[in-house]
Write a structure and sequence with these properties.
The chain is built from five helices and nine strands, in the order βαβαββββαββαβα. By secondary structure, it is an alpha+beta fold. The chain folds into two domains: about 130 residues, Maf protein; about 55 residues, no CATH class. The strands form two sheets. It has a five-stranded mixed beta sheet, sandwiched between helices. Strands 6-9-7-8 form a four-stranded antiparallel beta sheet, with helices on one face. A hairpin with a 2-residue loop joins strand 7 and strand 8. The protein starts with 8 loop residues before the first strand and ends in a 10-residue tail after the last helix.
Length: about 210
């Protein structure tokens, strides 16, 4: 039996937000080791809007993967991009659409998988005289999920404990929302795990004619 072409290979993963901890165990099933690339993926867009994403999630994921490959010199690359907001099909509900891209420069192929889920914690509220902090924290599943507080002075991200939350909620606080970066969002982590398994399943299958993965 012919061995899988990716067996005992290494691939670059471009991420600032610990996605390798979710994706690497799935790719280990194909004996692909992931190497975190020194790439600032936030330059391609942030959830909080300081940097707008340019291009579709697929385009951005592929761009990230290639940046990781360039930074590491590896011929394989992987990267993900998430879109969280009103669902395209059911706009009154929030969804998480995760895109995971695989690039193979040896075979000249790009393979992209998507996973859409309504199982995402994505809360947002304006801090005004009627703001119900206790109700919001329950909806936002705090402290299991991290928070972001925006104020006139700036943005405080990665809030995961009551002490830091109290410090961030100053008199000039404007709004509070879920921190949707993967390391602060367990519900998003589950969706990334699903799309990673989908991609691994696809890569595991070889074409009967040419033996190309995917």
């Amino acid at each position: 039996m012919k061995l899988h072409p990716y067996r005992h290979s290494a691939a670059a993963i471009a991420t600032k937000h610990l996605k390798e901890q979710i994706i690497a165990p799935r790719f280990a099933q194909l004996e692909i080791a992931l190497q975190v690339a020194p790439v600032d993926t936030d330059l391609l867009g942030t959830f909080t809007g300081e940097i707008e994403r340019v291009g579709t999630p697929k385009e951005v994921a592929l761009r990230k993967a290639r940046l990781g490959m360039q930074a590491t010199g590896l011929p394989y690359g992987i990267a993900s991009e998430g879109s969280i907001g009103p669902d395209p099909m059911v706009p009154f509900l929030y969804s998480d659409i995760e895109c995971l891209a695989w690039v193979d420069d040896l075979l000249g192929i790009e393979i992209v998988e998507f996973h859409r889920s309504m199982e995402i914690v994505a809360a947002h509220a304006v801090i005004d005289s009627g703001f119900d902090l206790e109700g919001f924290l329950k909806k936002a599943d705090f402290p299991n999920h991290g928070l972001i507080v925006k104020s006139k002075a700036g943005i405080t991200k990665g809030i995961t404990n009551p002490v830091d939350l109290e410090k961030a909620l100053t008199n000039d606080a404007i709004s509070i929302e879920s921190d949707l970066r993967s390391q602060f969002s367990p519900s998003r982590q589950k969706n990334i795990a699903v799309v990673a398994q989908q991609l691994v399943g696809r890569l595991a299958v070889l074409c009967k004619q040419c033996q190309t993965p995917g």
